[in-house]
Write a structure and sequence with these properties.
Blueprint: H1 5-18, E1 28-35, E2 38-43, E3 51-54, E4 60-66, E5 70-76, E6 87-94, E7 96-99, E8 107-108, E9 125-128, H2 151-156, E10 166-169, H3 175-185, E11 191-198, H4 202-214, E12 221-226, H5 232-251, E13 255-261, H6 263-276, H7 290-298, E14 312-320, H8 329-337, E15 340-344, H9 346-350, E16 363-364, H10 373-379, H11 382-396, H12 404-419, H13 430-441, H14 453-466, H15 469-478, H16 483-499
Parallel strand pairs: 8-12, 10-14, 10-15, 11-12, 11-13, 13-14
Antiparallel strand pairs: 1-2, 1-6, 2-5, 3-4, 3-6, 4-5, 7-9, 15-16
Helix pairs in contact: 5-6, 7-8, 10-13, 11-12, 12-13, 13-15
Length: 500
């Protein structure tokens, strides 16, 4: 039977009425200029600042410059396929990265995509890379130590969970080594570590991952890598992406540690992006908001109150100085944002003092609150004693006629600096640190030749593990050095000196 035109019309109308298509509102613009990782887009009147944009060929970008007629955007990835006249769409979302325990042990790019060849990451959660830092009311004071395993740091510039401690120094002075040793020392401590490599050589990142795997540290570490070959836009978002991954653990009541290596290259990448976007340059050609660039990142490190879950995110930003100039623009900015700094000095490094921590310029604004009581008891005056020794040693260069007391203090200081030397990738348990620092501070090493101090210390630790294990266990459990425990430690030192 043939259908009439009226029947056909009614069937079509019923089918159209039955279709339920969701309405999506999107703002569309056109590329008018593209190159050097920057796209100028005409239109996009509905775009928000820092909104994720969709370009053709699956490329994404971020809207940064919102002008009257155009939007300046950075392209995340390869812009060689993009052409003038291509359409660009807004998404209504900020840039997001996958977060969660599924990322632990993996190496990812700043967008959270795996680059270690171990297959896809099945993350269950996504988080925007830019977030407002926790307010004052939601925080509590930093009080739990984050043990680095490095004697010179845990004794004099201690780091607490939730603190921001800057590692600063010239190139090749051991800044990354301090951060890597700290990550290795978190094995079994329940701290998830995120290492963000910004503008590093691919070979250096590969070596670092191999080192972490060798020491079993990749089991609790996420590596976010924006290598030197990546566009400046990827280097710019890398630390924020790493921070979002760390915040997941902080907000779920766990402890996390994030290393930014380094923020000097991050600032340079942002300067490159800003200048290409025609933003007005300021001091050292950096844009005016370069302070805000790092403050909004580092403020996200926090020690949350018990009501908020009690999680912590500790930040170790790294800054590279030129010829020890800590008064340059970016170093002074980050020093003023952080809760202290560990200053590594090139002269000390070349003298063989490793780690090359300058006691006078290094400081922790949390101080003894981030130490166990036993460490506070032993190392309470160590900073002042070493600073006084440096002054005396400098003064003693000009004259050989020194009284016995001065000679004794110089000898004690020399032995103490040798005690604070430590090989790389060998972080030390806190009870062993307390024991050897007690030895040094109380002058038990003064009769040992300086070139034999390292061997004496190695033997002492082996002796304490074998004969003094009860003392070590008591320090580890009580975190204090009671008079009885101190007497036992003193006797163990005397007994070891008889056989050493």
């Amino acid at each position: 039977m043939a259908l009439s035109a009226q029947d056909i019309t009614s069937i079509i109308r019923r089918q159209i009425e039955g279709v339920d298509l969701p309405v999506e509102q999107t703002s569309v613009g056109t590329i008018v200029q593209v190159g050097d990782g920057i796209a100028q887009i005409y239109g996009l009147s509905g775009a928000m600042s820092s909104e994720l944009l969709e370009f053709p060929h699956g490329v994404r970008g971020i809207a940064l410059n919102l002008q009257e007629d155009t939007v300046g955007a950075i392209v995340l990835g390869d812009d060689s396929e993009l052409r003038e006249g291509d359409e660009v769409h807004t998404t209504g979302r900020l840039v997001e990265v996958p977060v969660g325990p599924e990322l632990i042990g993996r190496v990812v790019d700043p967008l959270g995509q795996p680059i270690d060849g171990k297959g896809p990451i099945e993350a269950k959660s996504m988080s925007p890379i830019e977030k407002v830092a926790p307010g004052v009311i939601t925080r509590k004071a930093v009080a739990v130590p984050l043990q680095t395993g490095i004697k010179a740091i845990d004794s004099m510039t201690p780091i607490g969970r939730g603190q921001r401690e800057l590692i600063i120094g010239d190139r090749q002075t051991g800044k990354t080594a301090v951060a890597v040793d700290t990550i290795i020392n978190q094995k079994g401590a329940g701290v998830v570590c995120i290492y963000v490599a910004i503008g590093q050589k691919t070979s250096k990142v590969a070596n670092l991952v191999a080192t972490l795997e060798k020491h079993g540290a990749m089991e609790h570490t996420i590596v976010v890598s924006a290598n030197a070959s990546e566009p400046a836009s990827m280097q710019y978002i890398a630390p924020y992406a790493g921070c979002a991954m760390g915040e997941y653990f902080r907000d779920n009541g766990k402890d996390a540690l994030i290393v930014y290596d380094d923020l000097s290259k991050h600032a340079a990448a942002y300067r490159q992006v800003s200048l290409l976007l025609r933003r007005p340059p300021g001091r050292e050609a950096f844009p005016g908001d370069v302070f805000y660039l790092h403050s909004r990142l580092l403020e996200r490190a926090a020690c949350l109150s018990e009501e908020e879950g009690g999680g912590t995110l500790t930040a170790l930003p790294i800054i590279e100085t030129q010829l020890g100039d800590v008064s340059a623009y970016i170093p002074t900015n980050v020093i003023s944002i952080t809760d202290g700094q560990i200053y590594l000095e090139a002269d000390l490094f070349y003298q063989g003092q490793r780690p090359a921590v300058n006691v006078g310029l290094s400081v922790s604004r949390v101080g003894g609150k981030a130490q166990i009581r036993a460490m506070r008891t032993v190392a309470g005056t160590l900073r002042l004693d070493l600073a006084a020794f440096r002054d005396l040693a400098a003064f003693a260069q000009f004259g050989s006629d020194l009284d016995a007391a001065t000679r004794s203090r110089i000898e004690q200081g020399q032995h103490m600096t040798y005690v604070l030397r430590q090989p790389q990738y060998q972080p030390m348990a806190v009870e062993h640190q307390v024991a050897i620092l007690y030895v040094g501070v109380n002058g038990y090493l003064n009769d040992v030749p300086l070139d034999k101090v390292g061997a004496w210390e190695t033997g002492f630790h082996q002796y304490m593990d074998a004969q003094g294990s009860a003392i070590m266990q008591a320090i580890r459990d009580t975190k204090a050095l009671s008079p009885e425990l101190e007497a036992q430690l003193k006797q163990a030192i005397i007994d070891y000196k008889k056989i050493a």
